[in-house]
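Intended use. Records like the one below are meant for learning the mapping from a protein sequence to its folded structure. Do not use them to infer anything beyond what is encoded.
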Amino acid sequence: MGATDAFAGRPVVGQRLSAVDYVLRDLRDAVESGVIHVGERLPSESALAARYSVSRTVIREVLRALEAKGLTVTRDGKGTFVVATHPHDVMFEGYSAAHLMEARPGVEIPAAALAALRRTEEQLDTIAQLIERMEKEKDETVWTRLDASFHLAIAQASGNPVFADVVASLAAALAGQSEMLNIQPLRRAASQAEHRTIATAVARGSAVEAEDAMRFHLEQVREAVSVTLTAAPSAAPAVPAKRSNRKRRH
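Structure written out for the chain above:
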């Protein structure tokens, strides 16, 4: 029996806080005190639900809170892993990695679908040129900027200025996140293939294909973020946390 299994097996009684607050506090204490170590996987939702005598819905809310605080990351099909003993988060131009991944699907997936229906020939040329430049680019910093430009070009091709403005405001943050992810072997090549699939779907005029391609790409980005933070949690704060001078819109 592993350390986390033993932890899940110990019943807890006497809670007076709300279920979510109590479980969150107890799990945070376990992580911060080292009862559950960095790099270890948390017990399953069902095991935690049994330990605390709460529903799995409560456990899911707690796990989301832990990830938002930078203590854990959840990897699809693999579970939730501890990546830090105290709350922190990697920041990109004032945005956390978790917040970026929470927001991007709601903007970029529908933008890709609309781009397939509304793009102009000039916009298709711009997207194709970006793909070509990215495939030839050797400088990592330049490549990450082109990556952000590609996502902006897709949003602009949607014909919806709201999508375009949102992605434009995130351009520097997206480039910073991309730079972090490119430390993973083969991630840049995989990302490039995903970009090409998105571009092809937009050029074909298939909203469904473009939507699916963007969704898959963002799922892979989320997985790459999780892998990066799980594999090297101590290195995460080393990513430059740039200050942003932009004004927030109200």
